[in-house]
Design a protein that fits this description.
single chain; about 70 residues; alpha+beta; Arc Repressor Mutant, subunit A; about 15% strand; WH-like_DNA-bd_sf; DNA-binding
Length: about 70
């Protein structure tokens, strides 16, 4: 989340996110990032939080909000 927020609204590529998550081989057909984002969104919604993430088709993920680290 911090990396996405620090990108200042720019789209972060799926490959870059895979690398940040510790995956050394990025398969363009893999849905593991989608699954991880889905689980993260479900946990956030259960806590009453909407994540300001937008999936950019065939490009990556964009953070469109503010992040406060406590």
């Amino acid at each position: 989340m911090e990396h996405l927020a620090s990108a200042a609204g720019a789209t972060v590529s799926r490959g870059a996110i895979d690398t940040l998550l510790g995956h050394t081989h990025s398969d363009p057909e893999s849905r593991r990032l989608d699954a991880a984002l889905r689980r993260l969104r479900m946990k956030a919604r259960a806590a009453g939080v909407d994540l300001p993430l937008h999936i950019v088709h065939a490009a990556g993920v964009r953070f469109v909000g503010t992040l406060t680290v406590v």
